[in-house]
Amino acid sequence: MDLTNPNFYFNRELSWLEFNERVLEEAQDKSNLLMERLKFLAITASNLDEFFMVRVSNLWEQEPSIVNESEPTGLNPLQQLHLISLKVHEMVNRQYSCLNRSILPALEREGILLPDYSELDNSQRDMAERYFRSTVYPILTPMAIDSSRPFPLLNNRTINIFIELSEINGDNICKAVLQIPTVISRIISLPSGNGKRQFMMLEDIITEHLDELFEGYEVLGASLFRITRNSDLSIDEEDIDDLLGEMEKSIKRRRWGAPVRLEIEKSMNRASREFLEQTLELDTEDIYELSGSLDLTVWTAFAGLPEFETLRNASLQPQPCIDFLGHESLFEAIRERDILVHHPYESFDCVVNFVREAAADPNVLAIKQTLYRVSGDSPIVNALMQAAENGKQVTVLVELKARFDEENNIIWAKKLEKSGCHVVYGLTGLKIHCKICLIVRREDDGIRRYIHLGTGNYNDTTAKIYTDLGYFTCKETFGSDVSKLFNALTGYSATSSWNKLAVAPFTLREMFEHYIEQETKNAYEGKGACILAKLNSLVDVGIIQALYRASMAGVRIRLIIRGICCLRSGIEGISDNITVMSIVDRFLEHSRIYYFENGGNPKLFLSSADWMPRNLNRRVEAAFPIEQQELKEQLIEILETSMSDTVKLRIQQPDGSYEKVDRRGKEHVQSQLRFYGQAVERVHEYRNELKDKIFEPILL
Q1: Based on the number of CB atoms within 10 Å of its own CB, is 485 exposed (0-12), middle (13-18) or buried (19 or more)?
Q2: Contact 397, 426 (CB under 8 A)
């Protein structure tokens, strides 16, 4: 069977757009609370911004008519861009239909209004005018466009007003651009009464007062527009001596990348549109007419305002991991047993405290850690700096090439160096994406290594909204592997063998393909064979073809894939034993779990890696086995509960779309809420047991 048939695959970019459609469905879903719907709508816009800045930009830079060898569908870049444009235009129409026909009317029913300027009463108008003159006017910089002043270089993703003017005593038509300030809030609260809450967009106030900026001229027309630019950093790492310095220069260049998308108000006249189209060197397909406020990401902060608490989901407070409770130190708990933590249902505090305790412990000699994405005020980074100041040997591998976190990582890298940490700025040609922390501690019986391995970033902020898994152990086999890995990353060690870890780009692909092939072999031999996997993206053609061969052999394959999936399920005789599912809910599904039945002795792995070429070939990644029966059962339960979700789970259809499960006759299961309920119940049971022990009588 020829498994290279283009009809057996979905295009990566179109599959990602299908994922964004699933997020948009959450905004359209009236069973979700209103501000949750608004938040999901803002997420779809933020997702599209990044998609254009990176993925569409990448297609623009390729030869338009040459099919990339990694593109299994046989589509060249020009064909992909055309299909993307068609799909995104449809999506944008649905976004604004959702906003204008559903969400804004629902806000109005809740007494939350966004009136036009003409609808303001006298007190609101006075307030708007005072605010404009006192705060807004001093910030504004009108920019004329003429022979001596060419079209300005406008920042990426800023909202601007394109203005047409004429001299009051003349016929000359002039053009100008005015950027909407980003240093003040874009949504302005207005004085209101009768239980109503009223707000106005900053651009509406500015547009109403344009004549004050152009004295002696008549404003003929004003329309909003927004440019999205190529923001993918391209650096030839082989030919640079200073990666840090080159990254800093590239970040500054990012805001001036070539335009790849133009968003305009639907009311913009044809002449203005054609002028922008020609000036920015864009085609009609790259222009998106919007029937409402530009840049829907503005609604994220609005939906989070304290006064709208009743219109949002109740906060789910992360629970403590009971395996750490009742112990004087985390090290004591980890010596007792290996520990698995399920975030955000269980608190990320144990990871932060793992590093904090090490920083203060006089018996800790060294800390080694990888950092890919961290928060703006990272307690982990602060603990690492404190550890160095306390005399520990601290080594930190900071990945400077973590997309859109480059600037933040550069700031932290410099601070870490100043505090005395040894900092490694990534590797040439590879991103360090694995999540590993190694603590070397002196104990009575010698040196012991404590390890944390995770599926997600060392980021205390995203750990509250991403689902991830963390694993703590002090087993020597893991300690040996992790030490080898750090030696390979910081020095010139050529490691070819590992006790427990599978590491990309060395052995990770080989490990995954081995276990898929083993299931295939078991199926041909009549043994039970099953593959379960939970991951973010499935793109790698080699893995997909291995899964097709397994399906053809009769292996039962169930995949939970949050985002991109290039595998096409349900092809008769090829993939009819494969089911692809996706969950979109209040938390971003981010953990990676891989299960292989292995002839009745299941193998389970956690990893920082998805099944994508970049993870298997161009990144330093790690997969690690979970071997304790109790923890294996915990992971299997996570997989089974996720796959039995009847509320937020969707199943891939033959055409690449996704449909929700038919809930008729099925138990109501919302997996994320069930996981949280289980975490709460574990803590409740632990405290009840503790309480019973306190009052336990002493038997003589």
Answers
A1: buried
A2: yes
Q: Which residues are catalytic?
A: 433
Q: Examine the domain organization and report whether 104 and 127 are in the same domain.
A: yes
622 Cβ partners below 8 Å, 6+ apart? 434, 435, 436, 453, 485, 501, 502, 503, 504, 508, 607, 608, 609
Span 616-643, pLDDT tens digits: 999 999 999 999 999 999 999 999 999 9
Nearest CA to 55 among 63, 45, 67, 47? 47
* Residue range 292-313: mean pLDDT, rounded: 96
Residue 692 lies in a domain: no
Domain limit, last residue, from 447, 478, 498: 498
Q: Clarify whether residues 540 and 493 are in a common domain.
A: no
pLDDT of res. 239: 45
CB 345 within 8 A of CB 318: yes
Ramachandran class of 71: left when φ > 0, alpha when ψ lies in -120 to 50, beta otherwise:
beta
Residue 589 is part of which domain span? 503-687
Q: What is the pLDDT of residue 147?
A: 82
Same domain for 494 and 596, yes or no, is no
Question: Are residues 282 and 190 both part of a single domain?
Answer: yes
* Residue 191 and residue 296 share a domain: yes
- Name which residue leads in pLDDT, 446 or 169: 446
CATH for 333: 3.30.870.10
Whole-number CA gyration radius for the chain: 28
User: What pLDDT band is residue 108 in, cutting at 50, 70 and 90?
Assistant: very high
Is pLDDT of 695 > 60?
no
The pLDDT assigned to 253 comes to 54
The pLDDT tens digits for 358-412 are: 999 999 999 999 998 888 789 999 999 999 999 999 999 988 765 666 777 778 7
Per the domain annotation, does 15 fall within a domain? no
Q: Do 337 and 416 lie in a common domain? A: yes
Class of residue 445 by CB neighbours under 10 A (exposed 0-12, middle 13-18, buried 19+)? exposed
Residue 95 is assigned to a structural domain of this protein: yes
Encoding tokens for residue 235? 């650096």
End-to-end CA distance of the chain: 76
pLDDT band at 291 (very low <50, low <70, confident <90, very high): very high
Q: Say yes or no: 368 and 292 in one domain.
A: no
Which residue, among 568, 563, 534, 564, has the nearest Cα to 548 in the 3D structure? 568
User: Could you tell me the pLDDT band of residue 694, with boundaries at 50, 70 and 90?
Assistant: low
CA-angle at 116, arms to 115 and 120, nearest 5°: 70
Render pLDDT for 577-597 as a digit per residue (tens, 0 to 9).
Answer: 999 999 999 999 999 999 999
CATH number at residue 230: 3.30.1840.10
pTM exceeds cut of 0.90 = yes
Q: Which pLDDT value is given to residue 237?
A: 43
Alpha helices in 161-281 (DSSP H): 202-208, 243-254, 270-279
> What is d(CA 13, CA 23) in angstroms, rounded to the nearest whole number?
16
- Measured CA angle at 453 (ends 448, 455), to 5 deg: 175
For 285, the token pair is 């397909």
Token readout for 691 is 């309480």
Residue finishing a domain among 267, 282, 311 = 311
Residue 102 has pLDDT above 70, yes or no: yes
Distance CA 226, CA 221 (A): 17
CB-based burial of residue 192 (10 Å sphere; 0-12 exposed, 13-18 middle, 19+ buried)? middle
What's the domain count of the chain? 3
Q: Enter the tokens of residue 205.
A: 């106030």
Residue 486 counted as domain residue: yes
Helix, strand or coil, per DSSP, at residue 383: helix
DSSP letter at 680 equals H
